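for the writeup, i need someone to sanity check this before i put it in the appendix. the sequnce is what the collaborator sent (i think, or maybe the updated version? ugh). structure was predicted straight from it, no edits. if anything looks off just tell me and ill rerun, i have time this weekend
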Amino acid sequence: MVPESYYVTLSAVLFTIGVVGVVIRRNPLVIFMSIELMLNASNLALVAFGQRYGNLDGQAVVFFVMAVAAAEVAVGLAIIVAIFRLRRRLSVDDLSLMRW
């Protein structure tokens, strides 16, 4: 049996890697992957805490987080494809120019 602290530590490490990916990278695809990594890290922590306390609330929340993440990816990828067709390159810095 693996202790819950291992799962929480792994979750913290994955979340930190995701935060670093969002802050450092300028490619929107890498930023989306980093956000997904952070969401999965929080899902791992929710399942670990749910297992520790013996209830299924954490797993129910994980289901909704995964549904929101799937919707976010669908909308985000559609926006990225539209920007790529318009500009022929992907950069987060170029997205600030699209306000006008």
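The CA atoms of residues 62 and 68 lie 10 Å apart. The longest helix spans residues 57-87.
thx in advance!!
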